Amino acid sequence: MTDITIRCPIQKVAEYAADPDHAPEWYVNIDSAEWRTEKPLSVHSQIAFKARFLGKDLSYVYEIKEFVPGQKLVMKTANGPFPMETTYEWESIDGQTTKMTLRNQGDPIGFSRVMMPLMSVMMKKANKKDLMKIKEILENS
User: Fold this and answer.
1) CA nearest 26: which of 116, 100, 105, 115?
2) Which candidate, 32, 92, 90, places its Cα nearest to that of 62?
3) What is the reported pLDDT for 76?
4) Taking a C-beta distance cutoff of 8 angstroms, is the pair 75, 63 a contact?
């Protein structure tokens, strides 16, 4: 789990982060996001992502499992190289500041067991970069 404080109202942070069209802008490893279902985002929406992680090209489809606008978004792979779940949570610190938490959980079966400790460290490092990028985008817009 990784979190960051962003000097923006919770509504702005949550709307931006929860929009899959913005994912390639702030996720270091995501190259593209393509809707598989109709907009707007809701439970059961599906989005196909193309990414690159630890030298591997990855393609996977996330399905929205829980969505409480302005509070929480949970996505789980519907298909892809390994089971993965990503959770975003937003908490208003005051009217102009938001704490955003990003959590990834999964079983990277496409990678060797020897790589597991490295993957965990690399994922946390990537999450930190992603949150720094979304902070930069939102605080400067």
Assistant:
1) 100
2) 32
3) 97
4) yes
DSSP string, 66-127: EEETTTEEEEEEEESSS-EEEEEEEEEEETTEEEEEEEEEE--TTS-GGGHHHHHHHHHHHH
Burial letters 32-65, b for 16+ CB under 10 A, else e: ebeeeeeeebeeebbbbbebebeeeebebbbbbe
pLDDT at residue 123, as a whole number: 83
At 11 the three-state DSSP class reads helix
Cis omega (within 30 of 0) for bond into 40: yes
pTM given for the model: 0.91
Are 32 and 49 a contacting pair, CB within 8 Å?
yes
Taking only the tens place, the pLDDT of each residue in 108-141 is 565 556 666 777 788 889 999 999 999 999 999 8
83 backbone dihedrals φ, ψ, rounded to 5°: -65, 130
Amino acid at 63: E
Tally helices (H) and strands (E) across the chain.
Answer: 3, 7
